[in-house]
Structures are given as C-alpha cells and as structure tokens.
Specification:
With about 575 residues, the protein is an all-beta fold. It contains two helices and 53 strands.
C-alpha cells in the first residue's frame, strides 16, 4: 500500500502520467517490471526487469537460476522451500542446514554421503536404506560385498565399487558370482550347501542360486540349518488357581504371559535366563469382578493389549508407563460391551495401526452368539450393520490377511457333529459361508499370504485343508493318524510363510480321563508335514504326563519371526511352555 501511495504522489507531482498509474500492474516475486505500467508489489524491488525480494524469496515464492531464495530456503522445482526436502537421510539420520545447503547427521553405523545416510557392516538396510560403497544388503544387514561370495571355491571375490565379482582360477569361468566349468549346462536346484551362515541352492555347474533356508538364529552345517531344539520356558504363578492363560512372543523371542485368577490379571516375562515380573509394580491388574477368561496380543512395540471377562467385554493396554483403556482412564480399561460373556472362547488381534479387534461369545438380544468389536480410532464399534454369527456358535479363530481383511472361524455342535464356518469381512460387508467342513472337535486357522489353512479334528486324526473364500479347494491332508483321541489343533505360520500345527492327544484309553497326555507339533515344508525338532511329533510329543494332573487348557501355539512356542496348562499354578528357534 505504501508503494502505491508513493507512485500516486509521484503522478500528482507530475513525475509521470496519472493515467499510467491507474493502468499499472503491481507484480509479485518473479513478475515483470521496469516501466510505469509494470511495477512491483510493496516490499519488492525491480532488478533487471524482474520483481525480487531483497535478500531472496520466502517459502512458496517462485525462484530460478537468476531469482534466488533467502538464506533459509533453497530453490526446489521453481519454488523456494525447505532445503531438507533435497536430503534423504532416512530413519537413521537427521537433516541439518548450513547456508541453505542440507546435509545429514547419521547414527552410529552409518556414514553421510550425498545427502544420504549409508550403512556400513552390520547396519540395518533395505529397499529404502542403502549400504555404503563396498557393502551390500544381505538378509537385511549391510555386509562386505564379498561376504557370502565363495566363487564356488574356485576363485576369489573382488569388489569393483559396490559390486562384487569373481576372479576365477583356470579353467573355470565367471558366471554371476560363481566360477563354473566352461560350457556347462546347468540344472537348477541340483544341490544345497551351507554358505556364510545360511543354506543356498546350487545348480549342477556350481553356481549359487536363491536362499533355501534362513539360518540366522541356528546357523548351518554341511547342507542344512542346525537341528531345531526345544527349550523349556515354563512359567509358575503362585497364589490362587489359574483360571485362564494366554501368552505371546516378542520380537526378541521373549515370552509375555498373563493369567486370569480370582484376584485379577497377573503378568510375567520369561526368557532363557528365567522368569521375572512384568515390571515396575505393574505385574498385577486388579479387577472389580473375578475374570474367568483372558486374551493377549502385543503391538509393534511389544506392549501387551488385554481382553478379558466374564461379566462384560473389558479391554486394557500397557502404554509404556501404566495400564489404560482407549476410551477412558480407568485402571480396568474400557467396558467395550455390556453383553454378558459366556463360554466359547476369547480372541484379540491388532490391525496394521495397532487398533484392537475383540471377539467372544456373549448374550446378545437374549441369545448366546459371537460378538465382534473393534476400535475405530475414537470409539468402539462393530463391522457392518449386522454380524453374521448364528446363535449357539463358539469362537475358534480371528485373523487378518495381508490385505487387512478379517476372517472369523466359528463352530457349533449339531447332533454330535461340529460344523465349522468361516466369515470374511472385506471392508464393506460380510461374506458368509455354509459350513466348510464338519468335524468332530475344535479347529485352528491361519493365513499365509494368499494361502489359508484350516486344521480340525476328525475322529482320531488332525486334518488340514486349504480354504479360499469360504470354499474348500484342496484335498484333505492328514497331519497325524492315531488310535487315541486327538484334540484342540492350533495353526500359525513361520517367518517363511509355512504352516505349523500343534495339537493334544490323550493316551489309551481315549478321553480326558486317560492315563497319559501328549502335545505334538508338525510343520509343512512345502511337500509334506514333518517333525519340528526331535520329539515334537513322535513318541509322546513335547510332553508325556499323567492325565490325572488335570489339563485345564488346550495346547496353544504362537510364532513371531524365527521363534515358535507351544504352551499347555497342566498344573494349578504352572504353565508349561516350550520354544524353538527355527
């Protein structure tokens, strides 16, 4: 405005035509100027017929090779902006600016180069986190580019910049990162061998192919990972009798377990060194009513989320300092639903945003049926206007697939048979199925990529079937055949996407009052079901105990990364747990 007043005064004093002033255009930064018809906005100056800001342009103003930005900004795609937009320091570095020039300050294990943080030996790497010159990303870690490059033991590895290559002994020639016989016609997957701590496939010419087995935890021998061994991670809970138990495996292989008993919920940790309290006086969660059931899930930071009953659906989570609900601050957490909880199982899963989904059986509109609740970010709600669960059904599984679609597996008793159904939430509505199979006892369910596997009991066998959109599309695969009573299968997937099934088995004579009880584990290797470590699927399995001990809970199986753990409740105050690193 002051600049317009100045030109108005100048025209009144006769310095130029007032008509020219009335017709003049006042340009912003980058606009044309230089005569009485083309002037600059207030605060700008005309330099070489272009309106500029003294000291350079501010954020969002146009810029070019001749039209600069102020010292705090850089010219990015024709506009002045934050110089750090030109840097890609990543999660292991931070951007600093000196005279509008950005650079990276990197965490230990990373070096700054061309506005990026690059990993060196042992540092985490991936698609968006590259390694420094001389290193390559191998199984998620930066390693010397020649690490794992044996050149078929017929030459030596050398590095050209960031690329390893082989110098081969005569008469062998280079083929990728191997030294092979001249004119050899390869046959893929001819053999496998241990190399640099992992097992790789090799073709018939000696060239290394893709990874066969990731042996990060166990290491490898001549042609395979070292044998799986089961370790005892049992937990003891002193005091009143355990009513229900659940557990989860952390990313480091530690166990977090929770029991429901008359005085409330009680948590413990367990690792190789032994058992310990959850910590900081937060081991016990007192409840106004004695909980009968509890379910546990860990978020991405390995913090417990608990779902418990019996008189209503209650949820509480650990926030790193104390216990809280999502919709309130009560130590007991959120009263998610006033529905009276009955038998039939409790399940909790967390979605990609760590929002909980809770599934149990409760009294709804005067009848017992499954009830599914989810946290929407501001309140507890349901999926869809109507949930497809029939009266009298029990909960068997609640899982997410890789596209965040929700699957619910339910069962009911019908004239001695157990029809098992799968309901899927596809983001807009429920897809209900008629019974997928008719079993004689409970079922477990798991999803690996696009593959869904249902394990269930049929007589004395544990059977497995692939399922797609509620329809069975593969033949039955028998996991075990026994003359005794099999019960309570559970299914998980390992880090490689293969299925692992656990189940319990009563000895002879069959039945819960039998004199012996065993817990078994088998894994699908892509071709058949095989024993997972010595004793997991032969003899009496992982345990051989008198049935008179009184098994209160069915076997449970959990997996996280390279770890798999199986638990069973065989004593009023002890939870037996066995864990293996795959």
């Amino acid at each position: 405005m002051m600049r317009r007043r100045y030109f108005l005064l100048a025209c009144l004093l006769g310095q130029f035509s007032c008509f020219d002033f009335i017709a003049a255009e006042f340009a912003a930064v980058g606009g044309v100027c230089g005569d009485s018809n083309h002037l600059c906005e207030e605060g700008l100056q005309c330099v070489r017929d272009v309106c500029t800001r003294p000291g350079g342009g501010l954020a969002g103003e146009v810029c070019s090779a001749t039209l600069g930005c102020s010292i705090d900004f850089a010219c990015i795609d024709g506009l002045c902006g934050d110089p750090c937009a030109l840097a890609t320091c990543g999660e292991f570095g931070g951007c600093v600016v000196d005279a509008a020039e950005p650079s990276c300050v990197c965490a230990e294990g990373y070096v700054a180069w061309q506005r990026r943080c690059l990993g060196i030996a042992g540092s985490v790497c991936g698609e968006n986190q590259p390694c420094d010159t001389g290193f390559t990303c191998q199984l998620g870690r930066c390693a010397n580019s020649c690490t794992g490059v044996a050149c078929s033991s017929r030459g030596r590895c050398v590095v050209d910049g960031m690329t390893p290559t082989c110098e081969c002994e005569s008469p062998y020639v280079v083929s990728g990162l191997d030294c092979v016989e001249p004119d050899c016609v390869p046959t893929s997957h001819y053999a496998s061998a241990c190399d640099s701590g992992h097992v790789y496939w090799y073709d018939s010419c000696g060239a290394r192919e893709e990874l066969k087995d990731d042996c990060s935890v166990r290491g490898c021998g001549a042609s395979g990972c070292n044998p799986v061994t089961w370790e005892d991670r049992s937990m003891t809970f002193s005091g009143t009798q355990v009513r229900d138990f659940d557990f989860a495996v952390t990313s480091s292989g530690e166990i977090i377990g929770v029991v429901a008993r008359a005085t409330g919920l009680f948590l413990q940790r367990r690792n190789r060194a032994g058992q310990s309290d959850f910590g900081n006086g937060n081991t016990t969660i007192p409840t106004s009513a004695a909980p009968m059931n509890v379910a546990l899930a860990l978020d991405k930071q390995d913090r417990p989320n608990l779902f418990y009953g019996p008189n209503r659906m209650q949820f509480v989570r650990w926030n790193g300092i104390g216990w809280e609900g999502l919709a309130g601050s009560n130590i007991e957490g959120d009263a998610v639903s006033s529905a009276q909880i009955g038998g039939g199982g409790m399940r909790i899963v967390l979605d990609s945003a760590d929002y909980p989904y809770l599934l149990t059986v409760g009294t709804i509109a005067g009848s017992m049926r499954p009830c599914l609740k989810r946290w929407t970010g501001g309140a507890w709600g349901v999926l869809g206007s109507e949930q497809p669960f029939a009266e009298g059904t029990s909960v068997q599984a609640l899982v997410f697939d890789r596209t965040s679609e929700v699957y619910v597996v339910t069962s009911r008793v019908d004239a001695g048979a157990v029809p098992i159904s799968i309901e899927k939430w596809a983001g807009y509505g429920w897809t209900s199925s008629s019974p997928v199979v008719t079993a004689t006892s409970s079922a477990g369910y798991a999803i690996s990529g696009a593959r869904n596997v249902l394990a269930y009991v049929q007589g004395s066998e544990i059977l497995a079937r692939r399922v797609e959109d509620g329809a069975v599309f593969t033949d039955v695969v028998s996991i075990n055949t026994s003359e005794t009573l099999s019960d309570s299968p559970g299914v998980v997937t390992d880090a490689g996407g293969q299925f692992i099934v656990s189940w319990g088995e009563y000895g002879s004579p069959p039945g819960p009052s039998s004199s012996r009880y065993g817990v078994y584990v088998r894994r699908w290797d892509g071709v058949s079901w095989s024993e997972l470590g010595e004793g997991s699927a032969t003899g009496r399995g992982l345990v051989d105990v008198p049935g008179s001990v009184g098994f209160v809970g069915a076997p449970q199986i959990r997996a996280r990364g390279p770890y798999v753990c199986v638990s069973w409740h065989g004593h009023p105050a002890e939870i037996a747990i066995r864990c293996a690193a795959l």
